[in-house]
Amino acid sequence: MTSHDRTQATALIALLAALLAAVWGWQQGLGPAPLTEAAGLTYGVVAALAATVLQAPLVDVVALSAKYTALTTVFSVWVAVAGAYAGWQLLRGRNVPRGAFA
Question: For a Cys staple, 47 with which of 14, 54, 70, 96, CB 3.0–4.6 Å?
Answer without folding.
Answer: 14
